[in-house]
Amino acid sequence: MADKLLSRYEDLKAQVNFHNYRYHVLDAPVISDLEYDRLLNELKKIEADHPDWITPDSPTQRAGAKASEKFEKVRHPAPILSLANAFGADDARAWFERVKKLDDRVEKAKFVVEPKIDGLSVVLHYRDGQFAQGATRGDGEVGEDITSNLRTVKAIPLRIPVSQSTNLPIPKTLVVRGEAFIPIKDFEKLNRKLEEAGEKTYLNPRNTAAGSLRQLDPQLTASRPITLLVYQIVSSEGGKVPTSQWEILEYLKSLGFPVTDISKRFDDLDSAIAYTETFKEGRDALPYEADGMVIKIDDLTLAADLGFVGKDPRGAIAFKFPAREVTTALLGIDVEVGRTGVLTPRAALEAVEIGGVVVRNATLHNFDYIEEKDIRIGDRVLVKRAGEVIPYVIGPVVDARSGKEKKYKPPTKCPACGQEVEHFEGEVAWYCVNAACPAQLVRNVEHFVSRGAMDIVGLGIKIVEQLIEAGLVKDVADLFTLKKDQMLTLEGFAEKKAENLLGSIEQAKGQSLNRLIAALGIHGVGEVMAGDLARTYGNLSALSKTTADELQQIEGVGPNIAESIVDWFARPANQKLLKKLKAASVDPQMKTDEKKKEGAFTGLTFVVTGTLPNFSRDDAKEFIESNGGKVTDSVSKKTSYLVLGENPGSKFEKAKSLGVKIIDEAELKKLAG
Ligand code: IVH
Predict the structure, then answer these.
(1) 116, 384, 621, 651: which one is catalytic?
(2) pLDDT over 50 (residue 593)
(3) CB 282 within 8 A of CB 54
(4) Would you call 43 exposed, middle or buried from its count of C-beta atoms within 10 A (0-12, 13-18, 19+)?
(5) Is the pLDDT assigned to residue 499 strictly greater than 70?
């Protein structure tokens, strides 16, 4: 019986690892998320019952314990070399001529072209097919042991060959080298999330990947979208010994490693150069940042015989793309008011061409960044435009200063409405919290009428913009006093459309208090907290008179959110808005007949973060509440469980620091029985 279970366990590990590979390496899953979850759950169940069976290659063992103070040093089995650069076709041909003189075989050599990804060089060790160690490049001789962090990178196989059906012998030892990186799209998604949470955004994918891999806490690395591509065998024993670079790529691929799918082999250098040059224009289409292509002599014996110049092998060359960093003058700093009221500084630059695009503006990330980098108006600044990433200012060229440059002071008032700006403890961003700020008005109204808030059917963004542009709506309360003849003045409005819209607006007057509170868009107050506030205070008038201390008695309300709520209600512009709403009969009182459901989760409090595989946020909330549990917006010591999805936010960090139990969607379902 135990034997049978053990073999099922082995089978499950192999299956889950294989499906991980299909998903993360090949980007071609062959089963649904639900089926994957089922396999993983079965595996976890067996491991819970038989913890002594767990092996390091189990897919459940990716994120391990925190590393101590620093990383251990690792001596590489062979030097981890660098590459000489070629800046254009002439340089590449000159390299060819040089090496031709050293060896006649070069004349007839074949070439492999690969992308030169701008990431972090890593060295992965496999012993008897098991991923045993992973290191940074370091100085090329000795790197740092970042095994625990690399284990969290799902594209790295924990066991090779990944597919049992390849029949490839398991090499006794295999050390491979690759480049770890964050794809551009994932990087931007990560930054968007940070920005929405008022947290510091990352500068570029490369630094983020490198920084994340050098974190002491693997859980943190696991939350970053790092992937990798491998391209070199550093040393091997007992496996296949490829004789060409092309064979290396094929062999590594067959073992289950992620290998680039744009490399090609050519019979002569000119064809290799021609292919390389297509990426000069086409680099933006690559899903990662690449600073060039690598042209490698295919024959490994020949390449090795050619030797090195310092740390650069003669058998390969980095064909660099034109730099996308240029210097230009910083003429001024504009401040934009973003979607969530966040104030973002933007550099106004003397127009400059970067990689065929004229750049006049670049992001300065946040006000702290300007201060930290000591960026001054009038400075010559280094600007980078890479891939699809928004151009950004790297920093000032201090040596080019004339002394006339001026230090920059962040605004204390919103540039759009003139109201004082606010800062929330623990966040880097400055906000304009004025609900009637014209820069935010469209966004505010859009949020106010949205499905999760007042749910005004038929009032889409287009109409919101029309109403604001025509001056009919200056704050959300104006919606409730709109007249039919006013609407008829708008383009595309006839009797029927105006009547329908007025009907939905009228209906919205009866929306519940929690919806209205959520609709106000108070910083830090989502749908869940709006429900808690509604239940506690019963109406807007009582809520507007509360204190920060009183608010903190509510589960999930910490000092920052309490302050944000009190502050919102204290603002004269917002008080005026509340009066207008009341005058328009928008003043819901909480229904008191809401009985709590009893169930497996009674007495338990949950916080959900990240994207869950099957549940939407609303589904998860409904599921938890239908089982008697409570869902709150923020993690506190009182939180019973954090339900963790893909790409979680800062709640994940907080839960870990408070020692809150962390579960995934499948475990949540299991917990409900
Ligand atoms: S080959 C002998 N191939 O570029 C092997 N390097 O500037 C020498 N890199 O430190 C390296 N993609 O981190 C090679 N396809 C690729 C590469 C690549 C990125 C990085 C690598 C190296 C740097 C050299």
Answers:
(1) 116
(2) no
(3) no
(4) buried
(5) yes
